[in-house]
Amino acid sequence: MAEPAAQAQSPFDPATHRVGRVLCFAAHPDDIDFAAAGTIAAWTAAGVHVSYCIMTDGDAGGFDPAHRAEIIALRAAEQSRAAALVGVSDIYYLHERDGYLEPTHEVIKGVVKLIREVRPDVVLAMHPERNWNRLQKSHPDHLAVGEAVTRAVYPAVENPFAYPELAEAGLEAYKLPWLWLYAGPDERENHFVDVTDHVATKLAALHVHVSQHPDVAAMEAVVRQGLLANARRAGLADGRSAEAFHVVTVNGPDTIAGF
After folding, report:
1. What is the DSSP letter of 160?
2. What is the distance, to the nearest Å, from the Cα of residue 80 to the centroid of all Cα atoms in its chain?
């Protein structure tokens, strides 16, 4: 049996790096659940405080024309119920239009504002790079989330002179330690979280988003297969399940201000 391909080494060591607060960014309701609900369930079970920021209202989602008038409220309710299953109650919305999200300064400022308010140890966000192996991961709104959050994280969040009105309002500059990106190219992924004990919770959260799944059985099969494949890439034992991330050190012991 061939050995699994070597993975890039993650700079994050869960044995030594403390995580007490996490802020997750996504384009649409259900994005976080597909990518990271298992990891989030593990965090909250360990006492980590996790918050969500959904950038659009998901108003272009769904499949039933009868839902158009109520789709925003429907998807927000689904996200609230799904979040509760993994221990999350804080959900923020930027209320951008689904399919029209761009990394404008208005959006970036909103991201900076929220990061400075929450002051998390980890910002979790969609990847700004396109995944050519599975293009569905790279909806234009997903890429816009990744670009907006990455621009916000450096330099704006830690620069007191970026969006000075935020500092004037009492939101002081903040040096974020970690940026975790999801739904990006497989070759960028350098950190795997064993979520075997939380697969049932992850799937329960995904099942809440009933407006988005015309074929629930197929959705669940794809998710399970992906988790198993991630675990194999991580070198975990057969039958384990994992979620995959591209972890970036933003401010660590070797970081020099301005570089």
Report:
1. T
2. 16
* No. of helices (H) and no. of strands (E), the chain: 7, 7
Contacts of 225 (CB under 8 A, 6+ apart): none
Name the DSSP class of 97.
Answer: P
User: What one-character-per-residue DSSP string does 184-243 give?
Assistant: S-GGG--EEEE-GGGHHHHHHHHHH-GGG-S-HHHHHHHHHHHHHHHHHHTTPPTT--EE
- HEC assignment per residue over 27-44: CCCCHHHHHHHHHHHHHH
Per DSSP, the three-state class of 68 is helix
- Apex 191 CA angle, 189 and 196, nearest 5: 115
- Phi-psi sector, 238: left (phi>0), alpha (psi -120 to 50), beta: beta
| Residues 222 and 75 sit within 8 Å (Cβ to Cβ) | no
pLDDT at 4: 44
Give start and end residues of each alpha helix (H) in 1-139.
31-45, 71-85, 105-118
Domain 21-249: which CATH class? alpha beta
Query: What predicted TM-score, i.e. pTM, was given to this entire model?
Result: 0.93
Residue with tokens 């975990």: 236
At a CB cut-off of 8 Å and minimum separation 6, what does 6 contact?
none
Residue-wise pLDDT for 92-135, tens only, equals 999 999 999 999 999 999 999 999 999 999 999 999 999 998 88
Domain residue extents for the chain: 21-249
Both tokens of 11, joined, read 């700079």
The candidate with the shortest Cα–Cα distance to 151, out of 108, 116, 110, 93, is: 108
